Amino acid sequence: MEALDMPVIAYGDGVGAALAGLGFTRAADGIFRDAAGRSFAQALAGPVVPKALARTYGCQMNVMDSETLLGQLATLGYGTTDAEDEADLIFINTCAIRGSAAEHALGEVGRLKALKQERPDVLLAVCGCLTQMPETVRHLQRYAPHVDLVFGTHNLHELPQLLHRAYVGEQQVVDIWRQSDAVVEALPSLRAPGARAWVNIIYGCDKYCTYCIVPYTRGKERSRRPGEILAEVEDLAARGYTEITLLGQNVNSYGKDLAGGYDFADLLRDLDRVPGIRWVRYMTSHPRDFTQKMVEAIAASDKVCEHFHLPVQAGADRVLRWMNRGYTRAAYLDLVASVRAAIPHAVITTDIIVGFPRETEDDFAETLSLVEEVGYDNAFTFMYSPRDGTPAARWADPVPPEVKKERLLRLNDRVYAIGRAKNEAMVGGEYDVLIEGPSRKDPAVYTARTRGNKLVHVPGAPGLENTFGRARIRRAHTWTLDGELVG
Ligand code: SAH
Ligand code: SF4
Ligand code: F3S
């Protein structure tokens, strides 16, 4: 296949021109203001500094998108808030991955009707993966006229223009792009403060697993150029971030659409040299595209953490084939073996779907045996949820829901027991950790993460937030470890 080099759009240029057309230019403080000196936010939403709130569902892609929305809003003069009653602008950033996620987000939209009735000036926007589905748009148009703005995953960078349309009185603004073949660079982002930052390296997904909605909501794979990624990571390091997580639905596909043969392993090698960055993580990796070259690059690097999240989805070859995963059980086990050969202490986690259409008890037994064979540190397990528009949703599914539920419980029992045993094996050992901050339950107990992404609770005190240390593990639980700092 010929490499397609995707067009790159610089955010600042397009939005600057559009806002100039609406009477706003960028002032010395970086905020778009009108001739009277009022920020875009003040001119359209109210005299004091209006505040925005983003409710985010779904994966890290959506978390990053919300940071981008809030980053753009900062350039328009908005502040942020976590309190609904203080918010002048509310985003519901939706997820479509499973029926439950979709219902949750739409339930939230319904709940906000009362708030909108009480405070009609609040602007309500719905965005994210669910809005890429035409049936969601129809639903919102019909049943949620209190929503002012509906946009999708491909046109975040047009937020200022979309907001302007919503504020100047268009009833319900709906603007969804079906596809995008561009990568938009230099979008402002309001990142959560701390040590850790997210960096998108590839957008979209071309894998078309037969159960999955993501290729329809996020479009085709588009890699960012290496230079843009490295510049962003260098800038993050300069701003004090020490851990970065590279994001993509399939980071191992990185570079396939760029000319020049530069791939994910090359990117990891280059990132390993960025001063100031201590740890590099990535998610999610697809077993089909995980090459030996990538395993070697990770083994050779200082910064890339020894955590392999390798979503297997199922243990039986025929189910993997129906799912269109593109690997067999044996190929997956070979990959696990090559990871363990290169990095014996690697932490390996996975995602598993139970109750795929036509999955038999024998198929499920193969999933259970694979879980035993690999010995995962942890697994995210899901009951199959049919998604309209995907091939699997059209297939006959004779497996009764009670059987699916019972399989999920049996799987979870094994996953938890194995995970706990893995954690118990760490007791007495010492591990490098990034200390996050006080835990939710007890301000004297701090949470920290190992390179393998295990959560450790340690006695802590102010000043330790976002620093690196070493923890000795004292006790193991199923999900977490207790320890103490030893340096
Ligand atoms: N790109 C990632 C997955 C992102 S979605 C990958 O391929 O590994 C996260 C997880 O949600 C998937 O790994 C899968 O286990 C689960 N999932 C996706 N679609 C689902 C569906 N229709 N029903 C149940 N689980 C699903
Ligand atoms: Fe969905 Fe498969 Fe793409 Fe992952 S690789 S996002 S499961 S289609
Ligand atoms: Fe959900 Fe979209 Fe992520 S469907 S899991 S938010 S890519």
Give the gist of this structure.
With 487 residues, the protein is α/β, with parallel strands linked by helices.
Give a description of the structure:
It is a single chain. By secondary structure, this protein is an alpha/beta fold. It folds into four domains: 8-175, Methylthiotransferase, N-terminal domain (Rossmann fold); 215-305, 2-Layer Sandwich (Transcription Regulator spoIIAA); 307-425, Transcription Regulator spoIIAA (2-Layer Sandwich); 430-485, OB fold (Dihydrolipoamide Acetyltransferase, E2P), CATH 2.40.50.140. Helix content is 34%, strand content 22%. It has 14 helices and 23 strands. The chain has a six-stranded parallel β-sheet with strand order 5-4-6-7-8-9, sandwiched between helices. A five-stranded mixed β-barrel has the order 19-20-21-23-22. Strand 22 and strand 23 (480-485) form a beta hairpin. The longest helix has 24 residues, at 401-424. It is globular. The model is unreliable at 1-5 (pLDDT under 50). The structure holds S-adenosyl-L-homocysteine, iron/sulfur cluster (SF4) and FE3-S4 cluster. Residues 58-59, 61-62, 95-97, 129, 213-214, 217-218 line the site of FE3-S4 cluster.
